[in-house]
Structures are given as structure tokens and as C-alpha cells.
Amino acid sequence: MSFSPPSPPLFNLTQPFAFPLNLLPDEASPEWMNKADNAWQLVAATLVGLQSVPGLIILYGGAVKKKWAVNSAFMALYAFAMVLVCWVCWGYRLSFGDELIPIWGKPNAAVEQKYLLEQAFLGMFPNATMVFFQFVFAAITLILIAGAVLGRMNFYAWMLFVPLWLTFSYTIGAFTIWSTKGWLSKMGIIDYSGGYVIHLSSGVAGYTTAYWVGPRLQIDRERFPPNNIILMLAGAGLLWMGWTGFNGGDPYVASADASLAVLNTHVCAATSLLTWLILDVIFFKKASIIGAVQGMITGLVCITPAAGVVQGYAAIAMGICSGSIPWFTMMVVHKKFEILQKVDDTMAVLHTHAIAGILGGILTGLFSEPHLCKLFYGSTSKYMGLFHGLHLGTSESIHWGFRQMGIQLLGILFVVVLNIIMTSLVCLFVQIIVPLRMSDEQLEVGDEAVHGEEAYAIWGEGDRLENQKYSSYYNDIESPSKTGVSSIELT
After folding, report:
1. In the chain, where the domains are located
2. Which of 171, 184, 208, 469 would staple 94 via disulfide (CB 3.0–4.6 Å)?
3. Which domain of life does the UniProt lineage start with (predicted)?
4. Which residues fall within 8 angstroms of residue 25, CB to CB, at 6 or more apart?
């Protein structure tokens, strides 16, 4: 077999424009960079991104009434794009940059090549990888908040809400708990992959936003069936499988601890799903697929703060708790207290994320193992679950166990208060500019009134069923005279 000589390069690599930082070709992989870790981190980030786009896009699009499928999916898509722009311009450095105050970093951009090619503050990969990895977590937090206000929040208000909430709420929680300079981080709070920063935050912020936006139309609150359960399941499946990157990527290294975190994540999710399903069968005599999805989500949320720092039996125990306690708060407590029913939480994020997030934070304080914490944090001096401390039985171990529980509870209190205050302030500010809630006329019609589009627009033999009052389809794209199709009045 013969080989032809290689073609000459298209560009002269010795010219300055090829390497604006005067990097030589053999420095594209510097000595400090671990290629396996970098590759895994990029894969993990992509898996988390797929949870949002298209995961939550199609989950929301299938889980709501037909008339809100486009709007619900679009809220998720918009948030993903807006968060990325804000993240590289100022959000990342507010969350992980130099300390401005103990709960916030200094605002700065993360777009300069020199900065992006330097080693990240944790991990043997460049800042560019870390910026992208942390972005997908920030994005999914905003998209989870959207779940609480589907079917009535003014899209223009949402467009303003996303960058403001990211800037003045998410970045504070991320810096405080995840940055090595944050005060709760220094105290020793355990939040392996976002039980506090993402899920508790989105649950509380979503419920608070729902309060300020107001409810859906009464007819929609009373009956709001999914328009496509199979589509919803496809989104849920992407959400579940994407959690491999969600929890598996947070050691910032392709390690044994990452493998443990992935296995614990799926074990807890499966256990929680089955627990929720069994309770539905026992008390409602129906095996509900929507209930099973709720149980899956609560299991994934609950294990997130503990994924790589607890043993397998603890993951099962956490799954049983996450499949039963949020089920009880949603199916029993919520229906008995009118004060909870006054807030219209479309996707029940209060129960699936706030309650499950609180539960995960508490159970992390009970079940975390010092040896596993050392694998993740590199230290055992201040990370010890209460059960382990009581098992050792020494006064010192018991002290550290109770101390860990205290820090976990303090973190819950901090995140709850932060998100109630900052979310309320953001909503009140946005309300000055545009109404938070759509008009009643828009709420009655849905996507056609808001976007001039609808999710399932095919009617008859390929003809479109159009509401010309709201859609510009015939006027701007093709008229009935061109297509030979007469306009059809909706009844």
C-alpha cells in the first residue's frame, strides 16, 4: 500500500495571525493539562446541556396543554441562550472570580483568550472548559424556574427576568457555596453537585416567581393535561441520562469518585421512581406515568448534594425518602393547606426541587462519609456525616457530625432567604417595565396570541389551521390565493 505525501498546510503556522498569543503548536496541550480529565469534563458539560436543550424543552412542551407547547419550550430555549451570553460577559467571574465580598466575586468577563487558556482554579484543564461546564448548570437553574410559571408569564417579562436573576441571585449562591472563597464553602458545607445552588434555589425562586406572576386561568388550573405524554417521557429520559454528567462531572477529574457519583445517582433515581409509583398504586389504584416521572426527578434532586460522598446503601435510603416525602407534601399536605394552593406552581417545583433539595441537603449531613469526602474535597478535617460521627462514638466525632448538620441547615436557610428576597426584588423591578402576567385574552388563546405560532399546526391534507387574528402566517409568508387554501374560522 502506498501513501501520497501530505498536502501543504493551508496556512503558515509561523505567522502571528495563526497564534495571536504567540503560542507554539506544541503548547496547545500544556504539561499541567490532563487530556482525559479535559475530555470527560467537556462530555459531562454536554450531557448537562442536553438536559436543557432539548431535554427540558421537549419535557415542558409535552407536559403542558397544547396551547402552551410553543411558549413553554421557547422559554427554555431563550433562557439557555441568554444565560450563556451573560455568563461569559460577567456571570462566571461573579460566581468563581476573585472575592469582592464574602458572598460575591468581582465582575469581569471570561472571554479573553489568555484567561480562557490558563489552568482552571480546580482541575487539570483550561478555564474555557470550566466556564462552559459551569454555564450549563446556571442555564438549567433558570429553566427549572420557568417550570413554575408556565402557561401565564409574559414572555417579555421572562426575557428581562433571566439576566437579572442570574446576576443578582444565582451568582451569589454559586460563589458562597461552590467558590473556594465563599464563606459557606470555607465553613465546610457539602453540596456535591448543586442540591443547594441549583435545585433548592430554583424551587424557592420558582415558587416565589409564581407568587408574583399570579395564577393561570381558573379553567387551566382545574384541568391542565399534558398534550403529549410520550414527548414528555422523551424529555424526562434525557434529563435522567444527562444526570450522568450532572453529578459525574463535579469531581473535575475522571476519577473513581466520579464513577461512584454516577452509580449512586441512578440508583437513587430508580429507587425514588419505584417508591413514588408504589405509593400511587396503593393510595390511588393507578400506576401513573406522570407520577413516576415526578419520583424520578425528586430522586435525582435528592442525591445531587451527596452523590459522591455517600455509600450505595445511603443512595437507596435517600431514594426511598425522596420518593415518599415529596409525594406526601404534594399529594397530601398541599391539598390540605389553602395557603399553598394560592400560589400556582405549574410543574410543582416547590415539591420536586425545593422540598427534595432540602431533603437532600439534610440527608447529606447524615450519610456523608469522611473517606469519600476526602476523595472529593481532599480533606477529612471538617466533613463528617452525623451517622458516622455517632458510629465512631468519640466526643470529637460526635461534635464534627453535629457541626456538619448545622452547616447543612445553615446553607438551607441562606439559600431560601436569598432567593425569596432577590427573586421578589427582580420581579418587582421587571413589573415596573412590563407586566409579569399575560393578558386574559392571551391566556385564553395561548401560543397563537403570544408568538403567532402553534405546536401542532397541520390540519387535513397538509393544510394549516390558522387563527388569522393572531398569526401572520398567511399575511407575511403565503396568502390563501397563492396556496389555494381558503381561511378557516376557528370555532
Report:
1. 50-441, 457-483
2. 171
3. Eukaryota
4. 13, 19
